[in-house]
Amino acid sequence: MIEIDIATGAASWPYAKPLFETVWPADILQTLPWGHLQFAHADLRVFIETDGDVLCHVGIYRRTGTWNGRKVNIGGIGGVITHPDRRRRGYATLALNAAIRTMQDEGAIDFGMLFCEPHNSAFYEKLGWQTFNGDLYAEQSGTRARFEQFVSRDVFVPYVFKIRRLLREGTIDLCGLPW
Predict the structure, then answer these.
(1) Residue 52: what pLDDT?
(2) In 3D, which of 52, 55, 129, 42 has the Cα closest to residue 91?
(3) What confidence score (pLDDT) does residue 160 get?
(4) What sign does the CA torsion over 154, 132, 36, 145 have?
């Protein structure tokens, strides 16, 4: 039987960590074009599990950022991973839908945002995510700069999802680390 569980981010990291180490072992992570980035820690985690085994994970990140200088509440999605032996069975779709529903139910999030490798773009687009075509700012090692200074859009494509608003243009400042 498949179960969907939503847990507090920090407290549930030990539960998520083995799946992360399976999908992105340290030696592989170092070779990825985004492996050098510092990422924020998830506020909540969506787990898809069966018989106590974690099959899939999606992190939810709540952030007050800015869009064109105005405060907005961003619902970040990150750490979308599925165990290699369990891929292509719909688990990531289930977990993402649960994450979006959680952000919608909270009622405070303006829009969702995620970053994905280009080979995953079609997957997110099928689920209603749309590319963000504006300027994007984030932090790395305490430095605020355009996101492209840290990693190119050929490596990580920013996507947005309408919760209360769909912001595809303009300037978004994450006001912190990416997720």
Answers:
(1) 85
(2) 55
(3) 98
(4) positive
